[in-house]
From TrEMBL:
InterPro entries: FAD-bd_PCMH-like_sf, FAD-bd_PCMH_sub2, Oxid_FAD_bind_N. Gene3D superfamilies: 3.30.465.10. Residues 6-117 form the FAD linked oxidase N-terminal domain. This is FAD linked oxidase N-terminal domain-containing protein. The lineage of its organism: Archaea, Thermoproteota, Thermoprotei, Sulfolobales, Sulfolobaceae. It comes from the Archaea. One of its GO terms (molecular function) is flavin adenine dinucleotide binding. Pfam families: FAD_binding_4. Signal peptide: none annotated.
Protein backbone atom coordinates (compact mmCIF):
# COMPACT_ATOMS: atom_id res chain seq x y z
CA UNK A 1 0.00 0.00 0.00
CA UNK A 2 1.83 3.14 -1.18
CA UNK A 3 2.02 5.97 1.35
CA UNK A 4 1.99 9.60 0.20
CA UNK A 5 3.46 12.41 2.29
CA UNK A 6 2.98 15.41 0.00
CA UNK A 7 0.69 16.78 -2.68
CA UNK A 8 3.42 16.26 -5.27
CA UNK A 9 3.78 12.57 -4.33
CA UNK A 10 0.01 12.15 -4.57
CA UNK A 11 -0.11 13.78 -7.99
CA UNK A 12 2.71 11.53 -9.25
CA UNK A 13 0.98 8.39 -7.96
CA UNK A 14 -2.30 9.39 -9.60
CA UNK A 15 -0.56 10.29 -12.84
CA UNK A 16 1.20 6.91 -12.94
CA UNK A 17 -2.11 5.14 -12.29
CA UNK A 18 -3.75 7.14 -15.06
CA UNK A 19 -1.02 6.28 -17.58
CA UNK A 20 -1.03 2.57 -16.63
CA UNK A 21 -4.86 2.30 -16.49
CA UNK A 22 -4.93 1.18 -12.86
CA UNK A 23 -7.82 1.67 -10.42
CA UNK A 24 -7.09 3.73 -7.31
CA UNK A 25 -8.76 4.11 -3.91
CA UNK A 26 -7.78 6.84 -1.45
CA UNK A 27 -7.47 5.83 2.21
CA UNK A 28 -7.04 7.62 5.51
CA UNK A 29 -7.16 5.63 8.72
CA UNK A 30 -10.83 5.81 9.69
CA UNK A 31 -13.21 2.86 9.67
CA UNK A 32 -16.00 4.62 7.83
CA UNK A 33 -15.58 3.32 4.29
CA UNK A 34 -15.40 -0.25 3.08
CA UNK A 35 -12.56 -1.21 0.77
CA UNK A 36 -13.61 -1.21 -2.85
CA UNK A 37 -11.83 -3.30 -5.47
CA UNK A 38 -8.78 -1.40 -6.75
CA UNK A 39 -5.29 -2.02 -8.11
CA UNK A 40 -3.70 0.61 -5.86
CA UNK A 41 -4.68 1.77 -2.36
CA UNK A 42 -3.07 5.12 -1.62
CA UNK A 43 -2.66 5.81 2.08
CA UNK A 44 -2.61 9.57 2.69
CA UNK A 45 -0.07 10.39 5.42
CA UNK A 46 -0.05 14.20 5.19
CA UNK A 47 -1.10 15.03 8.76
CA UNK A 48 0.01 18.60 9.48
CA UNK A 49 -2.47 21.24 10.62
CA UNK A 50 -2.40 24.76 12.02
CA UNK A 51 -5.08 26.45 14.12
CA UNK A 52 -5.59 30.17 13.72
CA UNK A 53 -8.06 32.49 15.48
CA UNK A 54 -11.27 30.98 14.15
CA UNK A 55 -10.24 28.33 11.60
CA UNK A 56 -7.88 25.44 11.01
CA UNK A 57 -5.91 24.70 7.85
CA UNK A 58 -5.36 20.94 7.79
CA UNK A 59 -3.96 18.36 5.42
CA UNK A 60 -6.10 15.37 4.52
CA UNK A 61 -4.32 12.92 6.82
CA UNK A 62 -4.67 15.12 9.92
CA UNK A 63 -6.64 13.58 12.78
CA UNK A 64 -10.03 15.15 13.43
CA UNK A 65 -9.83 14.00 17.06
CA UNK A 66 -6.47 15.71 17.58
CA UNK A 67 -7.67 18.92 15.97
CA UNK A 68 -10.82 18.86 18.10
CA UNK A 69 -8.80 18.39 21.32
CA UNK A 70 -6.31 21.08 20.34
CA UNK A 71 -9.14 23.48 19.49
CA UNK A 72 -10.84 22.82 22.86
CA UNK A 73 -7.63 23.74 24.66
CA UNK A 74 -7.93 27.14 22.93
CA UNK A 75 -11.65 27.45 23.86
CA UNK A 76 -12.66 26.67 20.28
CA UNK A 77 -15.03 24.05 18.93
CA UNK A 78 -14.48 21.82 15.90
CA UNK A 79 -18.12 20.90 15.14
CA UNK A 80 -17.83 17.17 14.42
CA UNK A 81 -17.32 13.93 16.35
CA UNK A 82 -15.82 12.14 13.34
CA UNK A 83 -12.99 9.85 14.51
CA UNK A 84 -10.96 9.58 11.30
CA UNK A 85 -8.97 11.97 9.13
CA UNK A 86 -9.90 15.33 7.67
CA UNK A 87 -9.91 13.75 4.20
CA UNK A 88 -12.39 11.11 5.32
CA UNK A 89 -14.63 13.67 7.03
CA UNK A 90 -14.85 15.74 3.86
CA UNK A 91 -15.06 12.82 1.45
CA UNK A 92 -18.07 11.53 3.38
CA UNK A 93 -19.54 14.93 4.36
CA UNK A 94 -20.32 13.16 7.60
CA UNK A 95 -23.33 14.37 9.61
CA UNK A 96 -22.90 14.60 13.38
CA UNK A 97 -25.30 15.57 16.18
CA UNK A 98 -23.70 19.04 16.15
CA UNK A 99 -24.97 19.50 12.59
CA UNK A 100 -28.17 20.92 14.09
CA UNK A 101 -26.42 24.24 14.74
CA UNK A 102 -23.29 24.11 12.60
CA UNK A 103 -24.42 22.13 9.58
CA UNK A 104 -22.61 19.43 7.61
CA UNK A 105 -18.86 19.72 6.89
CA UNK A 106 -19.68 21.25 3.50
CA UNK A 107 -21.27 24.17 5.36
CA UNK A 108 -18.43 24.96 7.78
CA UNK A 109 -15.58 24.34 5.32
CA UNK A 110 -14.30 27.42 3.46
CA UNK A 111 -12.22 25.73 0.75
CA UNK A 112 -10.81 22.36 -0.26
CA UNK A 113 -7.79 21.47 -2.41
CA UNK A 114 -7.83 18.19 -4.31
CA UNK A 115 -5.64 16.47 -6.88
CA UNK A 116 -6.53 14.64 -10.09
CA UNK A 117 -4.14 13.00 -12.58
CA UNK A 118 -4.18 16.26 -14.55
CA UNK A 119 -3.88 19.12 -12.04
CA UNK A 120 -4.85 20.47 -8.62
CA UNK A 121 -8.20 22.19 -8.00
CA UNK A 122 -9.60 24.31 -5.18
CA UNK A 123 -13.33 23.63 -5.02
CA UNK A 124 -15.78 22.70 -2.27
CA UNK A 125 -17.82 20.63 -4.70
CA UNK A 126 -15.65 17.60 -3.95
CA UNK A 127 -17.03 17.39 -0.40
CA UNK A 128 -19.19 14.27 -0.15
CA UNK A 129 -17.79 12.69 -3.31
CA UNK A 130 -16.48 9.55 -1.49
CA UNK A 131 -13.17 9.88 -3.36
CA UNK A 132 -14.79 9.22 -6.73
CA UNK A 133 -12.97 11.83 -8.79
CA UNK A 134 -10.00 13.23 -6.85
CA UNK A 135 -7.79 13.01 -3.81
CA UNK A 136 -8.44 15.65 -1.14
CA UNK A 137 -5.17 17.18 0.09
CA UNK A 138 -5.93 20.22 2.26
CA UNK A 139 -8.83 22.29 3.60
CA UNK A 140 -9.67 25.43 5.54
CA UNK A 141 -12.35 24.72 8.13
CA UNK A 142 -14.15 27.11 10.47
CA UNK A 143 -13.90 26.82 14.24
CA UNK A 144 -16.43 28.22 16.69
CA UNK A 145 -16.50 29.57 20.22
CA UNK A 146 -16.53 26.76 22.77
CA UNK A 147 -19.68 26.82 24.94
CA UNK A 148 -18.87 27.31 28.61
CA UNK A 149 -21.53 24.77 29.61
CA UNK A 150 -23.84 22.36 27.84
CA UNK A 151 -26.93 20.50 29.05
CA UNK A 152 -28.51 17.54 27.30
CA UNK A 153 -32.18 16.74 27.82
CA UNK A 154 -33.37 13.24 26.91
CA UNK A 155 -36.52 11.16 26.92
CA UNK A 156 -37.99 8.02 25.36
CA UNK A 157 -41.19 9.04 23.57
CA UNK A 158 -43.96 6.98 21.95
CA UNK A 159 -46.54 9.72 21.34
CA UNK A 160 -45.49 11.27 18.02
CA UNK A 161 -47.51 14.44 18.66
CA UNK A 162 -45.53 14.96 21.87
CA UNK A 163 -42.31 14.25 19.97
CA UNK A 164 -43.10 16.94 17.41
CA UNK A 165 -44.16 19.48 20.04
CA UNK A 166 -40.94 18.78 21.97
CA UNK A 167 -38.92 19.57 18.85
CA UNK A 168 -40.76 22.88 18.52
CA UNK A 169 -40.22 23.64 22.20
CA UNK A 170 -36.47 23.04 22.27
CA UNK A 171 -35.87 24.64 18.85
CA UNK A 172 -36.61 28.04 20.43
CA UNK A 173 -33.36 27.81 22.44
CA UNK A 174 -31.03 27.57 19.40
CA UNK A 175 -29.84 24.05 20.35
CA UNK A 176 -26.42 22.65 19.59
CA UNK A 177 -28.06 19.25 19.04
CA UNK A 178 -31.56 18.03 18.22
CA UNK A 179 -31.21 14.32 17.57
CA UNK A 180 -34.10 11.88 17.20
CA UNK A 181 -33.45 8.13 17.17
CA UNK A 182 -36.02 5.57 16.08
CA UNK A 183 -35.59 2.54 18.32
CA UNK A 184 -38.29 -0.03 17.53
CA UNK A 185 -42.05 -0.48 17.46
CA UNK A 186 -42.84 3.21 17.42
CA UNK A 187 -40.45 4.34 20.16
CA UNK A 188 -38.19 7.36 19.76
CA UNK A 189 -35.21 8.56 21.78
CA UNK A 190 -35.13 12.35 21.98
CA UNK A 191 -31.88 14.28 22.61
CA UNK A 192 -31.60 18.08 22.85
CA UNK A 193 -28.37 19.84 23.85
CA UNK A 194 -28.57 23.48 24.93
CA UNK A 195 -26.02 25.99 26.12
CA UNK A 196 -28.33 27.09 28.93
CA UNK A 197 -30.01 25.23 31.78
CA UNK A 198 -33.80 25.24 31.72
CA UNK A 199 -36.45 23.68 33.93
CA UNK A 200 -38.03 20.85 31.94
CA UNK A 201 -40.28 18.12 33.30
CA UNK A 202 -40.45 14.76 31.60
CA UNK A 203 -36.82 14.84 30.45
CA UNK A 204 -33.67 13.57 32.13
CA UNK A 205 -30.82 16.05 32.22
CA UNK A 206 -27.10 15.43 31.80
CA UNK A 207 -23.96 17.40 31.00
CA UNK A 208 -22.20 16.68 27.72
CA UNK A 209 -23.23 16.10 24.12
CA UNK A 210 -24.79 12.88 22.74
CA UNK A 211 -23.00 10.91 20.05
CA UNK A 212 -23.88 7.91 17.90
CA UNK A 213 -21.78 4.76 17.51
CA UNK A 214 -22.63 3.27 14.15
CA UNK A 215 -21.50 1.57 10.97
CA UNK A 216 -22.60 2.07 7.37
CA UNK A 217 -23.66 -1.55 6.78
CA UNK A 218 -27.26 -1.82 5.49
CA UNK A 219 -27.75 1.93 5.91
CA UNK A 220 -29.13 4.60 3.60
CA UNK A 221 -29.56 8.37 3.62
CA UNK A 222 -33.19 9.24 3.00
CA UNK A 223 -34.39 12.77 2.29
CA UNK A 224 -36.67 14.08 5.08
CA UNK A 225 -37.38 17.79 5.36
CA UNK A 226 -38.67 17.79 8.93
CA UNK A 227 -39.54 15.58 11.89
CA UNK A 228 -43.08 15.00 10.61
CA UNK A 229 -41.66 13.43 7.44
CA UNK A 230 -39.23 11.36 9.51
CA UNK A 231 -42.10 10.02 11.64
CA UNK A 232 -44.17 9.18 8.54
CA UNK A 233 -41.27 7.21 7.02
CA UNK A 234 -40.78 5.31 10.30
CA UNK A 235 -44.48 4.36 10.42
CA UNK A 236 -44.41 3.02 6.87
CA UNK A 237 -41.18 0.99 6.90
CA UNK A 238 -40.46 0.27 10.63
CA UNK A 239 -36.66 0.01 10.10
CA UNK A 240 -34.13 -1.82 12.25
CA UNK A 241 -32.87 1.55 13.45
CA UNK A 242 -32.83 5.14 12.20
CA UNK A 243 -32.00 8.65 13.27
CA UNK A 244 -32.28 12.20 12.04
CA UNK A 245 -30.46 15.37 13.08
CA UNK A 246 -32.60 18.46 12.81
CA UNK A 247 -31.65 20.88 10.00
CA UNK A 248 -29.67 18.32 7.96
CA UNK A 249 -32.52 17.32 5.63
CA UNK A 250 -31.73 13.59 5.91
CA UNK A 251 -32.40 10.54 8.03
CA UNK A 252 -29.97 7.66 8.23
CA UNK A 253 -31.99 4.45 8.05
CA UNK A 254 -30.95 0.83 8.55
CA UNK A 255 -32.99 -1.76 6.65
CA UNK A 256 -32.23 -5.23 5.28
CA UNK A 257 -34.53 -4.79 2.27
CA UNK A 258 -33.66 -1.79 0.09
CA UNK A 259 -37.00 -2.12 -1.72
CA UNK A 260 -38.68 -0.61 1.36
CA UNK A 261 -37.18 2.73 0.31
CA UNK A 262 -38.42 2.62 -3.28
CA UNK A 263 -40.86 5.51 -2.77
CA UNK A 264 -38.28 7.87 -1.26
CA UNK A 265 -35.32 9.93 -2.41
CA UNK A 266 -32.30 8.07 -1.02
CA UNK A 267 -28.79 6.78 -1.59
CA UNK A 268 -26.60 4.17 0.09
CA UNK A 269 -24.38 5.45 2.90
CA UNK A 270 -21.34 3.94 1.17
CA UNK A 271 -22.12 5.60 -2.15
CA UNK A 272 -21.80 9.15 -3.41
CA UNK A 273 -24.87 11.12 -4.38
CA UNK A 274 -26.12 11.24 -7.96
CA UNK A 275 -24.65 14.74 -8.37
CA UNK A 276 -21.16 13.50 -7.51
CA UNK A 277 -21.55 10.53 -9.82
CA UNK A 278 -22.25 13.00 -12.64
CA UNK A 279 -19.24 15.11 -11.65
CA UNK A 280 -17.07 11.99 -11.87
CA UNK A 281 -17.70 11.88 -15.62
CA UNK A 282 -16.13 15.34 -15.89
CA UNK A 283 -13.16 15.02 -13.53
CA UNK A 284 -12.43 11.30 -14.00
CA UNK A 285 -13.53 10.41 -17.52
CA UNK A 286 -10.95 7.60 -17.62
CA UNK A 287 -12.54 6.16 -14.46
CA UNK A 288 -9.42 5.45 -12.39
CA UNK A 289 -10.96 6.33 -8.99
CA UNK A 290 -13.12 3.74 -7.24
Amino acid sequence: MPEVYSEKELFNELRDAYISNKKVMMLGYGRHSELRKADIYLHVKMDEYEIHENFVIAYAGASVSKIREDALSKDLLFPSFYDGSIGGLLANNEISPLSTRFGKPSEFTEWVDFVTPYKMFRWKGIIGSKGLFGGITKAKIKLFERPSKVYTFESTIEDTSYLISSIDRFSKFNPLVLLIEYLENGKYQFHATLTENIDTTGFSKDEGVPNIEESNKNSYYVRVNNVEEFVNVMKKINPIYAYTVLNTGYAKIYVTDEDLLANYEYFKSEEASMIHKKLKKIFDFKNIFV
